[in-house]
Amino acid sequence: MKPTIGRIVIYRLADHDKETLRARGASNPNNGADEAPAVVVRAWSDTCVNLQVLLDGEGTLWLGSVQLADAPDQPRRWRWPERG
Fold this sequence. Notes:
Layout lengths: L7 E5 L2 H9 L11 E9 L4 E6 L7 E8 L8 E3 L5
Parallel strand pairs: 4-5
Antiparallel strand pairs: 1-2, 1-5, 2-3, 3-4
């Protein structure tokens, strides 16, 4: 698949993301979950995108130049959602 503007991907939050959200006043970033859906707001390539992460709770998280994950548990990476 090719990432394009408006596509939904899964983003794995890094500890730094959670710390940033706490510093902005979010007491429990993303309700404790390590992953969240994200909207592609710019596609730089087939593996590098800018994202707006849709958090479950307080705060907003915009990220630039996020790379496609090599493995599902890599922090600060995105992956395609599993098909059900």
